[in-house]
Amino acid sequence: MSSTTPLATTTAPTRHHPPSIDRLTSLLDKPHSVHHLLQTHALLLRHNIHTHPILNFKLQRSYASFNRLDYSVALFRRTQNPTVFFWTSIINSHSKRGLHDLALTYYTEMVTNGVEPNCFTFSALLKSCPIIAGKALHCQTIKLEFDSHVYVRTGLVDVYARGGDVAAARLLFDTMPERSLVSLTTMITCYAKRGEVDEARALFDGMKERDVVCWNVMIDAYAQHGMPNEALLLFRRMVVEKVKPNGVTVLSLLSACGQIGALESGRWVHSYVENNGIRIDVQVGSALIDMYCKCGSWEDARLVFDRIGGKDVVVWNSMIVGYAIHGLSLEALELFSEMCRLGYQPTDITFIGVLNACAYAGLVSEGEAFFSSMKDEYGIEPKIEHYGCMVNLLSRAGKVEEAYEFVKSMKIEPDPVLWGTLLGACRLHGNISLGEKIAEYLVGQDLANSGTYILLSNIYAAAGNWDGVAKVRTLMRNSGIQKEPGCSSIEVNNKVHEFVAGDKKCPRSREVYAMIEEINGWLKAEGYTPQTETVLHDLAEREKAQSLEVHSEKLAIAFGLISTQPGTTLKIVKNLRVCSDCHAVTKLISKITGRKIVMRDRNRFHHFVNGSCSCGDYW
Ligand code: ZN
Ligand code: ZN
């Protein structure tokens, strides 16, 4: 019987001769679907062999693998005197799905029924259990002398590692009679999750053999902890050592490139994917779109988008959100209506893109309509991000008071990002009284961060209220809040270069500062005066101007100018909001040098071309 042939047409001739146990076993081992499994189950019932221990066991396990725990449990409950294998299998099915309470209940029942656990029982139990239960199980394994078994010990290392007790995990790991690849990977994962990448790397380097899972864990550790260059380097070594990367490897790498805006490296990963037959499925496709958008190239993102067959909503979302962060509102909204026309159901992420698009294009009434349709038409409860988009939408349109009323009427607690947006709007529209009111509220509620103080100070400065600026400075000093250091990066020749304000670590530092001097000359010729009011420190006017000159984004731009060919687009990533002086200076640099400069700050993208910015000076 072919595995795809309907059962009814082929079982009639074999009614008196049931298929061999071997044949049935293999059918149960690799069912194609629940439907297929049900057919095989019916066959067993018809021939009255469903209680055969091996067949019954495999039937239960296969139902569980299709997430039909209900069938699996029902069959288990009908099994006469289940052996330890049956118990272990049902425990495993539950703990694999994070149902550790039920897994433990089965374990207790099993022991009460006088069935002795084996090492696989413990390995199954330890899979998802919390550290408290894990400690109790650890005692049991010692008592029953299973604790040195490699599977059990690996499970124990994992329990302590997940529970955050790294010292215990490491002790158990170090005293293992034999280390398996899995136990090593478990320990590396433990360090990686905590950001202890050096510890993870030491173990990784000491391994005799490594599989793709292990490489992925180490690459992801670098990617997730702000060391994208190391992630890419390790990937190159993986390729040299002829370990075949898979989709997971690619996802980590693309995330790393996106985080730091490393477009050249992202392109390299993309071409590797294409040349090595790694399928661009919806996951890898979305990650590519996301990477290209974050690296400032929505054009490349669109090329990928158009080529993905069988798009799902995540792919559509990536492209819509991508357009929106670049301020391409029209494109984002067009794509949204096309998506709806094709019958895709939008998600909460879709609306973040759509609402942002409306905000950038000043489409207030459209944005409000989308916001109410979210809940009314699609049944999606707005999250804090959606409220943030609405505040942004109203503020950009100059409706600051309305935005404030909107925040007060929210059903959920506003977060610092949202208050920051509102304060930013007060600065831009010169609404001092509302700005003060909000800032006082935040300080009173202990919700103020350095951004709050800086925005408030900017509000006062913009209105020439120097007493206010001084007051904020005192407040900030008294509350012990320090400004988060700004950091900008630029990718040149596949390597990401980072700069903090006043940085002199760069080997080409001397040339960078010479370039800054040259830029200053250009600015002076253009009649530009530094916007010293944005400087918070207690400095004399000349010193203030100097501290502005060495802002990290300016250093990154200067580095870009001296190390790339004329005409090359510069792509800068900044960890904070770009300050208004740097924004104005970058506009002028783009005009004077004729270069396109793309800057990604904490909130959005700025495309500087020939003296103006895509954000329309609102950010
Ligand atoms: Zn700046
Ligand atoms: Zn801008």
Task: Summarize the structure in words.
The radius of gyration is 30 Å and the shape is elongated. It has 619 residues and is mostly helical. The longest helix is centred in the last third of the chain and has 17 residues, at 509-525. Strands 2-1-3-4-5-6 form a six-stranded mixed sheet, with helices on both faces. Strand 1 (487-492) and strand 2 (495-500) form a beta hairpin. It is built from 33 helices and six strands. The structure holds zinc ion (2 copies). One zinc ion (ZN) binds at residues 583, 606, 613, 615, 619.
Give the DSSP E fraction (strand runs of 2 or more residues): under 5%
**Average pLDDT metric:** 86
Structural class: mainly alpha
- What is the topology, as strand order, of the major beta sheet? 2-1-3-4-5-6
- Percent range for helical residues? 55-70%
Keywords:
64% helix, 33 helices, mainly alpha, 6-stranded mixed sheet, 619 residues, single chain, binds zinc ion
Write the layout of secondary structure elements.
Elements: H1 7-11, H2 21-29, H3 34-46, H4 53-65, H5 69-78, H6 84-96, H7 100-112, H8 119-126, H9 131-143, H10 150-162, H11 166-174, H12 181-193, H13 197-205, H14 212-224, H15 228-240, H16 247-260, H17 263-275, H18 282-294, H19 298-307, H20 313-325, H21 329-341, H22 348-361, H23 364-376, H24 384-396, H25 400-408, H26 416-428, H27 432-444, H28 450-462, H29 466-478, E1 487-492, E2 495-500, H30 509-525, H31 541-549, H32 552-563, E3 570-574, H33 580-593, E4 597-600, E5 605-609, E6 612-613
Parallel strand pairs: 3-4
Antiparallel strand pairs: 1-2, 1-3, 4-5, 5-6
The structure holds zinc ion (2 copies).
One zinc ion is lined by residues 583, 606, 613, 615, 619.
